[in-house]
Amino acid sequence: HLWLAGEGPQLGALKAQAARLGIGARVHFLGWREDIAPLFAACDVFLCPSRHEPLGNVVLDAFAHRRPVVATHTAGPAMLVEDGTSGLLVAVEEPQAMATALSRLIADKDLRPRLAAAGFAHWQEHYSKPIVVRQYLDLFERLCETRAKHAAGT
Length: 154
Hints:
- It is a single chain.
- The protein is α/β, with parallel strands linked by helices.
- It contains 7 helices and 5 strands, in the order E-H-E-H-E-H-E-H-E-H-H-H.
- The strands form 2 sheets. It has a 3-stranded parallel beta sheet, with helices on both faces.
């Protein structure tokens, strides 16, 4: 089954295509969702087929939920995913490449947990709550020091 979470101008066309292909019963259009944890818990693989993904918060969410990632080679995923190590990257607007990567994950039972573990380790080391909070606190300390120096005229 394919779950598509989100909304956008292509929703009607995607529903029509699923019906036309005879797969409408296996494609589930979930709409915009705030409750992502149950979706990640239920999925085997996370696909991010974006044409434009500047940061890739959804990739970080997949990493945090220990799910293997297949994403398009856009700015955010390319910055986050080490191809073949913490996920698989494919060219933008290349559905055959996305299908090939997904087939690879289905066929290679050892690859899915390896990618998921590496993605989780990357998230934990660079993007987990303690890391991000520490970075913000460090930034605030530097800003306060700079302001104090500026106010003192040094």
